[in-house]
UniProtKB/TrEMBL annotation:
This is Pseudouridine synthase. InterPro entries: PsdUridine_synth_cat_dom_sf (IPR020103), PsdUridine_synth_RluA-like_CS (IPR006224), PsdUridine_synth_RluC/D (IPR006225), PsdUridine_synth_RsuA/RluA (IPR006145), RluA_PseudoU_synthase (IPR050188). SUPFAM superfamilies: Pseudouridine synthase (SSF55120). It comes from Atopostipes suicloacalis DSM 15692. Signal peptide: none annotated.
């Protein structure tokens, strides 16, 4: 993968400092230097101590990333919402695990992406999962196609510059049509899976807005995260007395749906390598859409 920049007046400095300014980490610089990548200035290979001038063209050629032999390969379909040289964004179906674990090494998003990369014969074949979803949560997931793209998107996430929106069906009609839930979340001492609101937990903020009140005492809500804790939406909605439909781990009923009614519906971000805004949307999965239509007032 090749990335190019042109040097401006404020960029006049040594190549190493220029690359760091562009978000290229010390680790990526070292890997490029010692594992087959190159640094070019105006088409000529240079060392990182090269002094840059206004108008110079800097080219970073990342070393090839070979596929992980420990990750199995599956050739199953991906619902691709967006793809460019740096990122792949998909709509994850209900029931598909994001990444393998000791208990599940079979079909996952990661194994399907690996299969897709091999089919397309991409230069870089390492699967960089940037965002994950629970097995029974559907919707938008983002995968980086090289280590630099992964690192840069990680910076966006840490600075809350990746806008993610979710839709959920929750039990009960919320009194306020919109609100902010600010409640710290910690791991439950009685479970390795379950989380809970606790004073000693990490700061956690969820914003919600009611889309529509439905029959059977259900609310269709849109949510956005100001932090990214495990099970954050599920924990917060349960905490305020409105657990997700189907989410029996946090007090929801499975009478209408046999899994938590949660879907990641959209992403919006400024592309860290092109500067263009990217926005993708994923429609509600069939089971949630059917329930919305059946319970519409």
């Amino acid at each position: 993968m090749t990335v190019k920049w042109q040097v401006t007046a404020e960029d006049e400095k040594y190549l190493k400092e220029f690359l760091k300014q562009k978000g290229v980490s010390r680790r990526i610089i070292g890997r490029t230097k010692f594992h087959g990548g190159t640094f070019l200035v105006n088409g000529q290979e240079e060392r990182v101590r090269k002094e840059l001038k206004v108008g110079d063209w800097v080219e970073l050629n990342l070393p090839i990333e070979e596929p992980n032999p420990n990750l199995i390969t599956t050739h199953k379909p991906l619902d691709i919402l967006y793809e460019d040289d740096h990122y792949l964004i998909i709509n994850k179906p209900v029931g598909l695990i994001s990444v393998p674990s000791p208990a599940h090494r079979g079909d996952t998003v990661a194994s399907r992406v690996k299969g897709y990369y091999l089919e397309q014969d991409y230069r870089h074949k390492v699967v960089h999962i940037v965002t994950r979803l629970d097995r029974y949560t559907s919707g938008v997931m983002l995968i980086a196609k090289n280590t630099l793209a992964h690192s840069l998107m990680g910076n966006l996430l840490s600075h809350q510059k990746l806008e993610k929106h979710y839709e959920a069906l929750v039990q009960g009609h919320l009194r306020q049509k919109e609100g902010l839930i600010d409640a710290p979340i910690a791991r439950s001492p009685e479970s390795i899976i379950e989380r809970m609101v606790a004073p000693e937990g990490k700061p956690s903020i969820t914003q919600y807005e009611v889309i529509k009140y439905l029959e059977k005492d259900i609310s269709h809500v849109r949510l956005s995260l100001h932090t990214g804790r495990t099970h954050q939406i599920r924990v917060h909605m349960s905490h305020i007395g409105h657990p997700l439909v189907g989410d029996d781990l946090y007090g929801g009923s499975k009478k209408l749906l046999d899994r938590q009614a949660l879907h990641c519906s959209s992403y919006r971000f400024e592309h860290p390598l092109t500067g263009q805004f990217v926005e993708v949307q994923a429609s509600l999965p069939e089971d949630m859409q059917k329930l919305v239509e059946e319970q519409a007032k």
